[in-house]
Amino acid sequence: MANHKSAEKRNRQAQVRRLRNRINTTRMRNTIKAVDAAIAAGSGDDAQAALKVAIPVIARTASKGTIHKKNASRKISRLTKRVNKMQAAA
After folding, report:
1. Are 53 and 31 in contact (CB under 8 A)?
2. Runs of H (alpha helix) within the chain
3. What domains are defined for the chain?
4. d(CA 90, CA 86)
5. What does the pLDDT read at residue 89?
6. 89, exposed or middle or buried, with CB in 10 Å at 0-12, 13-18, 19+?
């Protein structure tokens, strides 16, 4: 347990940030799962619509500092590639 006033404040801030990061990460993962489900179902229109929702959510998560910018870029790129590949096969 923290003994100094500044350490107690730092602990409170860390808890708030951890919860905020958890909310952002969960929201991002859920949108990615929606894209994955649409790809698994083989629905091109649903996958494209889910991707359009997921891209800004992933980018916003990176802009808030929850994940790294390049990690977000990689996730977006891989999702887009999978959706395009699925649509080309259909």
Report:
1. yes
2. 5-41, 44-63, 69-89
3. 5-89 (1.20.58.110)
4. 6
5. 87
6. exposed
| 8 Å CB contact between 44 and 90 | yes
Question: pLDDT over 90 for what percent of the chain?
Answer: 91
Contact present, 52 and 79 (Cβ < 8 Å): no
Residue given tokens 């994940």 in the structure block:
67
pLDDT recorded at residue 62: 97
Q: Name the CA radius of gyration of the chain, rounded.
A: 18
Average pLDDT, integer, range 61-78: 97
Q: Specify the pTM.
A: 0.89
The pLDDT of residue 18 is above 90: yes
Give the separation between CA 37 and CA 70, rounded to whole angstroms.
Answer: 24
CB distance 62 to 18 below 8 Å: no
* In the chain, % of residues over pLDDT 70: 100
